[in-house]
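Quick start: read one record
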Amino acid sequence: MRARNRFGVACLFAGASCGESAPTPASNPSRAEVPGAESAAHSAQPARPALAPALAVDLAGDFAEEAAARGLDYLNVSGSAEKRVILEANGAGVAVLDLGSDGDLDIVFAQGAAALDAAELPRPEVFENDGRGNFTRRALGPSFYAMWTTGLATGDVDGDGDDDLVVGGLPGIAVYLQGPGGELTLRSGAIPSDAFRLTREKGHAQSWFTSLALFDADGDGILDLYAARYLDLDPTNPPLKKLGEGPLAVPCTWKGHTVFCGPAGLVPQPDAFFRGRGDGSFEDVSSTALPGHVAGFTLAVLPFDADGDGDTDVFVANDTSPNLLLVNDGRGIFTDVARAAGVALSSEGRMQAGMGAAAGDVNRDGLLDFAVTNFSDEATELYFGGAQGFRRMTNAFGLMRESRSLLSWSVHIQDFDGDGWLELFTTNGHVYPQADEPHTGTRYGQPATLWKLGPEPKAVRVEPRSASSILTAAIGARGSAVGDFDRDGAPDLVLARIDARAALGMNRTGAGNARIALRLLGPELPTETAPRTPRGGHGAKAIVVVGTGADEHALLGEVQTAAGFQSASTPWLHFGLGASKRYEKLIVRWPSGRVEELPGGEAGARITVCEGLGVVAREAFR
C-alpha cells in the first residue's frame, strides 16, 4: 500500500530497525535591480569572492581537474565576453548517461553560439567513456535540431531499456532516442510544434527553455517531462542597455554599472508539462497538469517526493519570482503549496533569484531535504523536511555567512567522501563581467565550493589541496553533473564552465571509507495495473541500513536524474558506509507501491536491483 503522507517514509525508516537517528538541529538586494534602481555600494572587493573565515576541513583527498588529460576537450561558447544579452550569461548544462548500455557513464554538453544572430547554430556535444574515465568525441547521430541549447534531461522515454536524451534551449525542445549502437537519433514529432514559438523575426519572442526534468508523474511507468521556461527574448532585436525607447527608456544597471537587461522588466514565460506516450513522444497537457500556473522566470526544476506519499512532486526555483512547490495528487496534477510549506520566499519574505536545486537526506531522519542556490548577496538556502512543510536551516548551518558573497548555480547534495554524511557542492560565477569593477563586493570568476554538512549540523568548508583542484580555479561554471566515471565507487563531478573548457573533477577523497552504488530498475514488462515503476527506476527509493547496536543508522536515496542547473546526473545511488565494511539490510520502495527488503552484503561494489527479482548483478569497484 502506498504511504498517504510524509509520515510514510519516516515510518518505513523506523521499521527498518534503524536505531537512533542523528540529532536534528534546532530551527532557527539580490538580482539586478528593476532597471534604473541603484543599490548602495559595498566595500572594495577581494581578489576573489571572500568566503567567511569559518570552519574549514581537509577531506584527505581532492577533486583533481583531469578533463584535458582524459580527452574531455569541450569548450563552451556563450556569446560575447561582454555579455550584452541575458542569454549569453546563463551558460550550458551537462548530462550524464550510458550510451551503448555498457555500464559506463558518458557525457553530453549543451552548447551556445558566438552571437544571437549566428548563421550556424550548434548541436550538443557528446563524449564517450572507455570505462576508465577516458573520453573520445562521438557524433550526436544522423540528424539533429540546431539551436542554442541550454538544458538537458536523461531517462528511458521509449521504454526499451536504455537512456535517451531531451535537449532544450532557444527556441524549442528536441528528443533523441538511443539506438542499439549507442547512437542518439532525433525523434521527429516528439513534442507538439505548437508548444514552441519558433518564428525568428523582429518583434517575435521565441520560446526559451532552461532546465528539464524527466519523471513519472501519473504512475503509468512512462516518463513525463517538466520543461522550464525563462523569459521572452527576441533574438533579432534584444534589449541592449535599456528597456523602451525615447525619453521614457529605462537604463539597465547593477550597482551603478550598465549591464544586460533582465530578468526584471522583461516578460516571464510559463513552464510546460508534457505527458509521455511511451514511444519517445509527448503530449502537451500543461493546462490540466499545472492548473493556475503563474509564470516566474524558471531556472531550475527538482523532482522528488517532497511529501513522502510515494509519488513525485516538483520544486521549481524561480529567478526574482516566488519559488513553487508543486505537490502531485498521484494523477499528474500539481498544486503549488510553496508559501504554506515555507519555501516560496526568503526568511524576510522577499523574492530571491533561484538558480539550482538538489535533494538529499542531510540529517539522516528519513525525510528528504533540499538546497536552492541564489544570486550574490543572497544565501544558498537549505531546507529540512518535516512533518508539515520544510524548515529553513540556512542560518543554523552557517550558510548565510558562507555563501552570500557567491552567485551560485548548479548544486548537489551527495556523500562524496564516503563517510556516511552528505556534502553540499555548488558551481559559482557572476552573470555580470562588471562584477570585477571596484566596489561591487564580488567577482565575475568564482571557484566551485564544497561544504561538509555532517556529522555536526553546520556547513564546514572543504579546502582544495592543490592548484589543480576544481575547487581552486576562479572560473565561473553553470551546469554540473555527478557520476562515477572510472567506476571506483567514488562519485566524480563534471562542470560546464562558461566561455571556458569543461572541468572534470575525479574524486580522490575518502580513500579509507567503504561505499556501495545501487542501480534500481523497474520490470522489463510493465505490470497490468498502475501504479507502475518506470523501467529506469525513476522515483524508486533505497534505504540502506548500516552498522549494528548503537552504531546502527539508515541512509536514504531517491532515483532522480534531474538536479542542479540545466543538468542531469547519474541514476546510480551512491552511499558511503564509513568504517563499516558491509551494509546490514537494503529496503527498496518502488513507485509501484511494492516494498522489498533484501539482505545485507559486503561493501565495495556496484549492485543492480530489479523490482521483483532482487539483486541481479554485483560488480566490484575498480
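Residues 1-54 have pLDDT under 50 and may be disordered.
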